[in-house]
Design a protein that fits this description.
Layout lengths: L1 E6 L10 H11 L1 E5 L7 H12 L4 E5 L3 H11 L7 H17 L6 E6 L8 H21 L3 E4 L4 H8 L7 E3 L6 H9 L3 E4 L7 H8 L6 E3 L20 H13 L3 H16 L5
Parallel strand pairs: 1-2, 2-3, 3-4, 4-5, 5-6, 6-7, 7-8
Length: 273
């Protein structure tokens, strides 16, 4: 069995084909950690609906992605500056939703920081504010987290130092070898996706990752222009990622899948599926 550590099954690209995707997951022996993103709770509510319907293969996470924080604020203010009252109200709303459904939610995500999209210091402060609220909930209820850290790995690691989180995943890790070493030393998991199939840079990072901290993902419905013919990610992509891990680490496939499954279960603090 394999676990896709990070996928957006509530994305519009999957609408209407959920049964097909779930059928593929079941056929391939894959369970999927489905993360949510938005302020208006569409993906969060949908995640719980899907997990209720397909509880054998879907592991629901709920969180607020840094991209959605900024998109919402740009819509509210034509000058692009933060409407702090609006952000506070919506943040309170999603926190109430998470805590009200905490027994059904397996983890908090997708959350994190992204310096690539910020225009000024106020925007980044807003990201940090939301990130800290999400981490506080994860700490309080003992939930794992799935973290976005584009151009912000140092900021994420620094923020995490103030919290005691049972399972931390830096999803789609794209930091340096130095940052990877720090993450490893703190016991943070890192995940690799389909880019690992062809990217020498990712293969080098994987080779330098502690084996008991490696996870894999598709980040679907992302499309991969340099492999898979630019197709939308589907569960079968994860098999290719597992093979890429095996080849990069010089392991046989069965040993690799066993390692990846054990790592995933430990990250999720789950004893059975």
């Amino acid at each position: 069995m394999l676990i896709d550590a990070h996928v957006h099954l509530t994305d519009d690209d999957y609408t209407g084909i959920e049964d097909t995707i779930v059928g593929m997951l079941r056929h391939l022996g894959i369970s999927a950690v489905s993360v949510s993103m938005d302020l208006d709770l569409n993906t969060g509510e949908r995640n719980l609906e899907l997990a209720g319907k397909y509880s054998d293969v879907i592991i629901p996470f709920v969180g607020l992605h840094p991209w959605c924080i900024n998109l919402d604020r740009k819509e509210e203010r034509s000058d692009g500056k933060a409407d702090h009252n609006l952000l506070e109200d919506n943040l309170d709303k999603i926190c109430v939703f998470i805590e009200s459904n905490i027994s059904r939610i397996k983890g908090i995500g997708e959350i994190g920081l992204d310096r690539a999209i910020v225009k000024d210091g106020d925007e980044f402060k807003a990201q940090i504010k939301v990130f800290e609220r999400m981490l506080s909930i994860a700490e309080r209820y003992g939930k794992p987290v799935s973290i976005h850290s584009r151009r912000a790995v140092d900021d994420v690691i620094d923020t995490l130092s103030s919290y005691r989180i049972k399972g931390v995943l830096l999803h789609w890790f794209s930091g340096s070898k130095k940052q990877l070493a720090i993450a490893n030393s703190k016991g943070y998991y890192v995940s690799y996706g389909p880019v690992l199939v062809y990217s020498k840079e990712k293969q080098v990072l994987l080779s330098n990752t502690a084996r008991d901290l490696v996870l894999i993902e598709t980040d679907g419905p992302v499309r991969y222009g340099s492999c898979f013919n630019n197709m939308m990610a589907v569960p079968s992509f994860l098999i290719s990622v597992a093979y890429a891990v095996a080849n990069t680490l010089g392991m046989d496939y069965d040993s690799t899948t066993s390692l990846l499954f054990e790592n995933s279960m430990r990250y999720l603090n789950m004893h059975s599926l």
